[in-house]
């Protein structure tokens, strides 16, 4: 690591911190292996997305102010979540007195895979991961941050996560029937529209199972938490890993 | 100020409500001249078949009409004038049991098979709909690429009624199963000259 | 009933719900495939969006142009502030004609104005002539989809219904047979009607003409046999120029059903000699929506229904779950503008996945407007039980210390308590889903131990 390397802050979503510390560890180690200078600023809280999506964006000014103050000094902010990054960039309310800092910060916040492909400009990762991997595209990452082409649009297909995964030795990429259908998590939707949320999750799992996915991965642990919760309840034979975990394992 | 408010018509109320809203001006875009790649006739035929119609040559049409038995035929096509055995009535209700209408199309659009007809081509506006079967005669030289060229062709012409017909009457309202012949013509044959 | 309750009910018939999802997915897939055969597809969407932006910015003058040109062509133009006035205008025309039975082709606007029950109250028989609409009319139901009105019904149900209403053979479910029966039944209605009503897909300011698109040919069968044609048009259906139709007709059918164009696309400019064409320009909440900066561009909608076909919620909850005339994503951003309280659950019937915005042929940012409606709705109704718990959560997220305490409290609670006792949201979460296993330490704790 060069001493003048850009300083990267690791932004770990609250539920990852609480329930999936291994995803945080994998993200940190992965970035370090790729030669980054990474710090996890202490005192992180939830970004405010659950509140904002529930219609209370106006109550998240404090949360947002805290976020800006915590991360403004860094060159980049990287999170293993498309959803939280999208929220910070598009749905966090304007903070009085910090408008300039907020605008600057929004250009520095990245989802993990896009940071690796677009900023670190990694063309391919050398490593080994001999498994059949099914990718769940989180909607906020895909259609929000445009981390992959969306099936609705007439555009040249691309997928930033796939680019990183498909060169790994032994990895078999699972082609799904519906490449980018929502899993039904949707934050508070998972609870307020419980029946639909479960049905959508089951349908996604069926798509993966019928195409013989061995490990289901994705860039957002919230979708995976929901899918894993349903799969576990129904004794379905699937493993779940965040993409950071796969990449970190593969290149070690 | 007049204390009494005049009674406004709904027209005035709607227009004044709109006038009261300030909306940032947005320019009307020019439409680029989009084109279609590929051979026009081939594309047109493919489109009509996709719309569940049929395309025939003059010879194919003549052999088909020779074997078909229609008791009532109205032909407004100069090319097949002699096939008409019924004069155009004044009241379209009298067309109720018309077996076949043969009309002339002005031009056809290759990208989707839509054929343009106006009042002078129709005789009565109900004709292409109420007839059991429909034949449209079209000259190859009158094929255009896309709807854009189609509207260029129509230009600012004024006819009381104009219609793009692209196929027979169809529906998929029962379990999305395609059924031809909902209310209008049960078939469309395009004779390409 | 709220959307979640209706959706839960719909999902009880699992086989039918699955069929509904797959059938609409098939339509969306057809739309995807055909849109990808047009290299300039995304450019067309952008053009359509820009043309509609221009329309919204100049709506008043375009309406005046449209009126003037239509009148020049011999069309009689009426203006209606709301549904009630629209219905009254229709009734007056019918009474003048001494007309007791009318045929009507598909018009979502007349559904919105509740025209049928209004006319029936005055003893007028209204026959919806679109096959799907006739089916739901027999059942006394509204359409469940704006393009596919009877998509919620299986052919067995339609066969039963036709047996009862049209005396078709019992048990004959063949769609061709059933459609033929409807053809014979409706032909008689077409021949007997003196007045026909249609909706309007596009009204052209420059020429005063209007365009109606169908596949069945039912609109044309009705109006060309009748003496009087009444066309009902929302004021937002205006396009500036005739040539704009090139853009919109290329997008409409491809987006709606994945076909290259509807089979009949009729351009009405002047009545036939001796006949009348009336057009009713209807506001009914549209100017109010136009005044809402965040929501005004919902008025760009051309009613193709693509957002319904793509919506993972709509496909699995059915059109009736929305309880609004226009269901699905677009309905969920239009309806709260008409009655925010009544439709307060609709903007929440979404995961904000964004698929609706990506299929929309006029690029309405539907999912972003769903998000914005949520912000509005919570201001006026602090209810849903969300109010309190969310405020509480807000307090927690603002303060790192409180967050840490509540987080560890929550984690130890999860460890100690049986699932059934965990507080309400988690309880609902856990109904059909397991909770994640609780790790022994958080990432923060790990980081402090290993990296500080």
Brief digest:
Chain A: Residues 8-88, 133-228 form the Cysteine-rich domain. Chain B has helices at 10-19, 40-50, 58-67, 119-122, 127-130, 147-154, and strands at residues 54-56, 73-75, 100-104, 107-109, 115-118, 133-138, 143-144, 161-165, 170-171, 179-180, 187-192.
How would you portray this structure in words?
The complex is a heterotrimer of chains A (252), B (193) and C (452). Chain A has 13 helices and 8 strands. Chain A is of the alpha/beta class. Chain A folds into 2 domains: 113 residues, Rossmann fold, CATH 3.40.50; 119 residues, Rossmann fold, CATH 3.40.50. Chain B has 193 residues and is an alpha/beta fold. Chain B has a single domain, classed as NagB/RpiA/CoA transferase-like (Rossmann fold), CATH 3.40.50.10420. Chain B contains 6 helices and 11 strands. Chain C has 452 residues and is an alpha/beta fold. Chain C folds into 3 domains: 129 residues, Fumarate Reductase Iron-sulfur Protein, Chain B, domain 2; 247 residues, NagB/RpiA/CoA transferase-like (Rossmann fold), CATH 3.40.50.10420; 57 residues, no CATH class. In chain C, strand 5 and strand 6 form a beta hairpin. In chain C, helix 19 packs across helix 20. Chain C starts with a helix and ends with a helix. Classes of the chains: A alpha/beta (252), B alpha/beta (193), C alpha/beta (452). At the B-C interface, helix 1, helix 6, strand 8 and strand 9 of B face helix 2, helix 3, helix 4, helix 8 and helix 10 of C.
